[in-house]
């Protein structure tokens, strides 16, 4: 089944993927931010589903989750907001969520809704590959979605191979042993990890995330991978000023 | 459904458990999964653990026949005196077990979360004893309501990090400890304080706490001629003292096991921490278990007068034992717990932790036979709770 994620991966290098939290900074900013990201040159978008207790996120994204929930964001409301998104936005959309909100909504129902609104993939950081394969993979594939799994410098070769085997889009390469929002220069560790992965000849391309904050760090990771994902830095920027559209445009200018 | 005492190899007890963790935690958790049973099964480990439990903690903790309490409730009440352990609660059993394991794994730094501060104090103590660096995460609200324990941790050389996210209590301290472990994975072991978290934590902590029921069997045999009581009662926050007290009786079907959850201001008040009464299955802190949440899957902030029970969920084994009906659950309000705690002070001269008072309150809610032997696990002492008790005097 063709999927917008695969199409972008096949047609482009240096893919710029932006993460934002749905319903943040204001409840009805979701669609506005999506439209502006496409207009201003993003290649792929991760739509964050807020959760009260995310463990893989740093303080900036946690805070945005709390604000979005206080604004009244919910899984159902997010799908309502996204209905009709395909009339306005053609970029690949990946839903990023902790597992619990998806399970409570109903895993299959969630996937079905993704397909209905035109989302292309899932990132569920706390769903390990083994559980994915045994419980969820069939459902994800039935609705034409791509599941994207994280790897880190501490993942074993065997695990990376297992993830590669069960992936059909890209692998999310975590730049370092750290959560989101940890500011540091991309070190030799990252390069060593990238080289290790190159030597493994994986079938899926790699897109790097965690700690990318600007054009400079983006350029560094795209030397070694197919693209980069910006999360905390964008989430911080989008809330500066009262107009999420203007803030998005301002943040994206650097990448034009 | 059959009741399991131990998890399967993927860490499941029936439909609960597992290890739902981000890839960034995988290496550390996988190392534990692969090695914990081998390491804790060695004679060397057992010897080291036993000596510390005996000479440092002061085990076995007494099993005390509380005669005046027994008279009042017209049954035979035995108190398992975990409050007499060094550092004042059962938590030290687990902290010592895990720190010996951490040393064998070559770890240099320890992190922990704490609610009441008892687990934080126990872990800070174990770290001082072993010369390891210790960082304890504690919700801001708990830092205020358990101030004496914050002071103790600092004296013992631990760094206490106040957590200001979410409800500023135990669940948020647990999130923060996990985040820290993700960001600082090298040479660091996370000593979780209860039977929660990803596999193998629930089983590992259960095994370290199982000394409680192992001793009860021996002590009861000496006192009554039978190893088996009729009833065992324990309070449940995450469930570690209850699991320790139930462990060696779980497969003895004649023994009635009762878990006291914190009802807070009442089950229907919106201010409660009763996970089996108000919870739904979901994923929290790395395992599939019962916890309080909205229809949308957001964790509901719990409430209990007791910081150690102020947690929205319970461990996966306890969820499983609830599901199979092996363990009975009762919900005890703040008010009832406080009255039972004060009653123990006056009848027996023992000041219990507010957590343990929830277990004591079951005596007033349930009729036991004149000839029955009822063991209440007195999980900790109440020195840390004086301010709270004084308001109820
Ligand atoms: C004295 C005491 N009892 C009980 C608990 C609850 O924990 P658990 O359910 O893991 O025994 C605590 C936790 O801090 C405690 O300090």
From TrEMBL, chain A:
The keyword Lyase applies. It holds the Pfam family Trp_syntA. Signal peptide: none annotated. Pathway: Amino-acid biosynthesis; L-tryptophan biosynthesis; L-tryptophan from chorismate: step 5/5. It is an enzyme of class 4 (lyase). GO terms for molecular function: tryptophan synthase activity. CDD domains: Tryptophan_synthase_alpha (cd04724). HAMAP family: Trp_synth_alpha (MF_00131). The alpha subunit is responsible for the aldol cleavage of indoleglycerol phosphate to indole and glyceraldehyde 3-phosphate. Tetramer of two alpha and two beta chains. Belongs to the TrpA family. This is Tryptophan synthase alpha chain. It comes from Reichenbachiella agariperforans.
TrEMBL record, chain B:
It is an enzyme of class 4 (lyase). GO terms for molecular function: tryptophan synthase activity. Its EC number is 4.2.1.20. Gene3D superfamilies: 3.40.50.1100. GO terms for cellular component: cytoplasm. Residues 58-380 form the Tryptophan synthase beta chain-like PALP domain. Its cofactor is pyridoxal 5'-phosphate. The keyword Chaperone does not apply. Transmembrane segments: none annotated. The modification N6-(pyridoxal phosphate)lysine is found at residue 91. Keywords: Amino-acid biosynthesis, Aromatic amino acid biosynthesis, Lyase, Pyridoxal phosphate, Tryptophan biosynthesis. Pathway: Amino-acid biosynthesis; L-tryptophan biosynthesis; L-tryptophan from chorismate: step 5/5. It catalyses: (1S,2R)-1-C-(indol-3-yl)glycerol 3-phosphate + L-serine = D-glyceraldehyde 3-phosphate + L-tryptophan + H2O. The keyword Transferase does not apply. InterPro entries: Trp_synth_b_CS, Trp_synth_beta, Trp_synth_beta/beta-like, TrpB-like_PALP, TrpB-like_PALP_sf. HAMAP family: Trp_synth_beta. Belongs to the TrpB family. Tetramer of two alpha and two beta chains. This is Tryptophan synthase beta chain. The lineage of its organism: Bacteria, Pseudomonadati, Bacteroidota, Cytophagia, Cytophagales. The gene is trpB.
